[in-house]
Design brief:
The chain has four helices and four strands. It has about 90 residues and is of the alpha+beta class. The chain has one domain: Alpha-Beta Plaits. Strands 2-3-1-4 form a four-stranded antiparallel beta sheet. The termini are close together.
């Protein structure tokens, strides 16, 4: 299954992307693969990401893990703006 995530970042896209990519091995351990990332052309603090995941529940569990939650916070993700949409074919 794929999920599309959209959220606002407080430290800019480049900072978020660097932090996000450095955490790629941990996401892979949890069964997540990055399909793409990007930012909106008109607002570079709005990020879109597509992940191939085992389940939405697994993603939620990943995000609640204290170590992963700390990285998400350090990346500047404004959690209250986050929207996750499951995509099926």
């Amino acid at each position: 299954m794929k999920i599309i995530g959209t959220f606002e970042v407080s430290k800019g896209y480049e900072h978020w992307k660097k932090t996000f990519m450095s955490h790629e091995p941990k996401r892979k351990e949890w069964g997540m693969e990055t399909v793409f990332t990007g930012m909106e052309a008109k607002n570079q603090n709005i990020v879109h990401v597509c992940l191939e995941v085992e389940s939405l529940e697994k993603v939620q569990e990943f995000m609640k893990d204290p170590e992963n939650a700390k990285v998400i916070e350090e990346a500047g993700v404004k959690i209250e703006t986050q929207i996750m949409i499951p995509i099926i074919e």
